[in-house]
Amino acid sequence: SARIQDDPDVRVMMAGSTLRKVKSKSWKKPRHFRLLEDGLTFWYKSRWAGRSHSTFTEVEAVREGHQSEVLLSLAEEFPADVCFTLVFRGRQGNLDLVAESPEEAKAWIQGVRKVIHKAQTMDAKERLDQWVWDWFQKADKNKDGKMNFKEVRTLLKMMNVEMNEEHALRLFTMADKSESGSLEIEQFVHFYKILTQRDEVWKVFQDYSGDGEKLLLDELESFLSIEQQEGEQSSRRAQELIDRYEPSETAKKQSAMSLDGFQIYLCSREGSVFNPEHRELHQDMNQPLSHYFISSSHNTYLLEDQLRGQSSLEAYIQALKRGCRCVEVDCWDGSDGEPVVYHGHTLTSKILFRDVISTLKEYAFKASDFPVILSLENHCCLEQQTVMAQHLSQILGDVLLTSLLDGQVPQQLPSPQELRGKVLLKAKKINGPGDCVDETLMDEVSDEEETANDDAESLPTEDPSAECLKVLYIHLMLCGVCVESHKSKCKLSRELSDLVVYCKSVHFQGFEHARSQAKCYEMSSFSESKAKKLAKDAGTDFVQYNTRQLTRIYPGGRRTDSSNYNPQEMWNVGCQIVALNFQTAGLEMDLNDGLFGQNGCCGYVLKPDFMRDANTQFGPEKPKELRGYKPLRLSIQVISGQQLPKVNQKEGSIVDPLVRVEIYGVPQDQAKEETSHINNNGFNPVWNETLNFVIHAPDLALVRFEVEDYDKASRNDFIGQFTLPFTCIQAGYRHIHLLSKDGTAIPPSSLFVNISISELE
């Protein structure tokens, strides 16, 4: 196949270009960029800086022309044909670049797209070869294309391997076939192979292989049926796996699998802990909206904290790209009659409402076709509300749902399937569909303000900057700048009110009132503390209420650092729209990504059947009373880890990893167990320890695997994690492909485990 390095655009990038890196109207500096020989890694340095440089590989897309806020603001100065933006995976900020000529910009735009395509289409073997090649380049200090023993020692440290001198030398000598005292790239690959031989995989292979060399079709079949619990389909699967993963043609002809093929299968999608069938869109999408958990974001316009952070259109793009289906827009009167979006009464920057709506139009349905709910926190005067209504209608056009689907006042909400490709406005409404008109409705226009006052949460904070923010927050309040809770009574614009159909915001008046009076299209918002209290005092009522009506939960007003609350407690009572600060990485977003990683990452997950039945008696405090209650035993043998990333970039530091497994679910299921730590080995630590759990409400449980660097003196450092729904786990020998704090992949880091799930005797 043609090497990417021979492509003319890629050659331009490898030769290098001076591009201007632009951060703001005043910050525009030339930097030297080039693509490294591996055809995947970009390198750049400032012309003047000494030896320091940066590299990156995580590019996800290239946008041409003025497609970022910064480049748009500089449109006069730099024409569109020399501008482009690199967009990264995860939460890393974009890179805005300006080339010296349109030709150069074109070469980079097309070239980077080819590199992205190559990275996406590499198979596991190519990816590993690539990884080995990268290490070789890093360690070949004198760039002679060879590696002597001293360079190999340094490399092992860089790779997180602690190994005694003799053992390393023995492997080195085995690989140094030409006895020249140094390894060339092919020999280094051999060295790497000896280094990464997986004894624990070999042992499993030996258990099922008659001759110790290969697994015959029936041997592989019995492995799949006994260990991997594949049941009926084992024989069909065995042949499929050989066709798909066996690298040796000879073995393929015999319908057999070699150790190499076996290892490749175990590291593949099929060998993953997450059942690939559950990754796809597979749930019934024809039930009322209230029957789904919906991926939801809070203060979607923010990239950082709520007091001085940037408000940005990029924040909307990032949330929508992650499958978020409910975004929040905080609107305030703008100075020239144009409403603006920002966190009111704070130092966060402002963006135009109409730009937010244009961004929504462009990105709403890239990750998922299912409906997006636009949650409006409206603080505008009558005139600017009408301007908002005009923007919504003109920009979104028929994407905005403005009338009942069949003209009938509904008894239940429509389904995600019926609402595909539609944006639903959630806001106050002068009256319900088909109700009589009251023109003079005066109301608190914004949901979150209503409850900001009864929010007495204190922020758990360890971060000194969060402390300063709290002080600033209190200071602003003392100075009479009221941060959250100016209760303005305000008229609602008829034009805006008319755009609300199925998501009418109302003040919650208790479960009793809801049962007798409420309509399915009425929904309320609760702060986390209010929701927690309701869940604790009236769990079953809350579950029943949520079978018919939507509920939105948002973080308490004191979380000015944009920290998150645990969403699991809200899902436990069936709340659908559990809004989190997507901009803040950590456990809570890991749980959100874990729950919504199933069903095609479409942002909608069907609730368990006991949360969809209006007469359900389920309460999270009493799972035992559920019809068909069957607790399960989950047993996880943590066998080994592979190529864990370094936490500390300091030369000699190597991690001491331990694995912790945490269960999130109903209160009875909350649990955590951990292995002991292994000293000085992040490369191929072996634990062979078994952790046991009992799960009482399997349909609600999430399982989180976290790897940490043990530190006896201070808190352990985070190394990587993976979270998934209990119902999506594949039993048997599985790999868990770890994610960074940001939720992006960090190949080839993984854990190797053996999982068994059985009924509790």
From TrEMBL:
Alphabetical keyword list: Calcium, Cytoplasm, Endoplasmic reticulum, Glycoprotein, Hydrolase, Lipid degradation, Lipid metabolism, Membrane, Metal-binding, Nucleus, Repeat, Transducer
Pfam families: C2 (PF00168), EF-hand_like (PF09279), PH (PF00169), PI-PLC-X (PF00388), PI-PLC-Y (PF00387)
Start and end residues of each PI-PLC Y-box domain: 496-612
CDD domains: C2_PLC_like, PI-PLCc_delta
GO CC terms in record: endoplasmic reticulum; nucleus; plasma membrane
Localization per record: Cytoplasm; Endoplasmic reticulum; Membrane; Nucleus
Residues binding Ca(2+) 4, per UniProt: I654, D656, N680
Domain C2 positions: 612-740
Residues holding Ca(2+) 5: D709, Y710, D711
Membrane topology per record: Peripheral membrane protein
UniProt main location, coarse: cytoplasm
Reaction catalysed by this enzyme: a 1,2-diacyl-sn-glycero-3-phospho-(1D-myo-inositol) + H2O = 1D-myo-inositol 1-phosphate + a 1,2-diacyl-sn-glycerol + H(+); a 1,2-diacyl-sn-glycero-3-phospho-(1D-myo-inositol-4,5-bisphosphate) + H2O = 1D-myo-inositol 1,4,5-trisphosphate + a 1,2-diacyl-sn-glycerol + H(+)
Active site: H298, H343
Gene Ontology biological process terms in this record: intracellular signal transduction; lipid catabolic process
PANTHER family given in the database record: 1-PHOSPHATIDYLINOSITOL 4,5-BISPHOSPHATE PHOSPHODIESTERASE DELTA-4, PHOSPHOINOSITIDE-SPECIFIC PHOSPHOLIPASE C FAMILY PROTEIN
Protein name: Phosphoinositide phospholipase C
